[in-house]
Amino acid sequence: RGIGLAVTRFLLEEYKVRVIALSRSRTPEIEELYKKHEGSLHIAACDIADEQSLTSTISSYIEQLGSIDALVLNAGSIEPIARIADPTVPLASWRSSLEVNVLSLVVALRAAAPALRKSVGGGRVVFVSSGAAIKGTPGWGAYNAAKAGMNSICRTFAEEEPSIVSVAIRPGVVDTEMQRVIREKGVGHMTEKGHQQFVQLQAEGKLVMPEQPGHVIAGLALEAPKELSGQFVSWDADEVRDFRKD
């Protein structure tokens, strides 16, 4: 759903490439896409927080297909939405956030890196980040830390693996399930002004549609230029203008 679905659709329909989509569940939307592209779309049920499951899923598809050219790291969770000093919030919820938002990146990169290094056109990794990586939005402590960690992993991986282009993308305030969670659960944890900004964006129809950053991410997954490696770039920045769909 959301950005992941949009990226998958553009890769299949515009770039005509084979896509392996990892998802906890098969939504009606992904099922519909599968029926249209049964020969090119592979859907794998996978819990990305489970190291063994994620590693074996990626490894088995690489072995089956023989190669992999790009990795889009899009999974993420904003919860728990809570103040850092709130003693009622179990530390386990922070651990869960880090497992999904940070550690899964390491697991995926470890599994995919050998194949990405061998990619004929040069392997690429797109990290779907957030403005939270460089902000301190109250109530988003776990998410802020996780996305800052993602950007750090992107920068470091770019230095460690010079043959692979690694880019972190800021997708904007996108109309996804995460926005619903923010509107419904942010009260009392975020500042009143901060929470109202998100409520107002939705009410005024000003949220970014998933297809907007999705088109940029799909393009970068296949054609990201070397000079962007290690960078954190907004989906609507001049650096990625050529990948936007106006």
TrEMBL record:
InterPro entries: KR_dom, NAD(P)-bd_dom_sf, Sc_DH/Rdtase_CS, SDR_fam. Keywords: NADP, Oxidoreductase. Residues 1-177 form the Ketoreductase domain. GO terms for molecular function: oxidoreductase activity, acting on NAD(P)H, oxygen as acceptor; oxidoreductase activity, acting on the CH-OH group of donors, NAD or NADP as acceptor. The keyword NADP applies. It holds the Pfam family adh_short. Belongs to the short-chain dehydrogenases/reductases (SDR) family. This is Ketoreductase domain-containing protein.
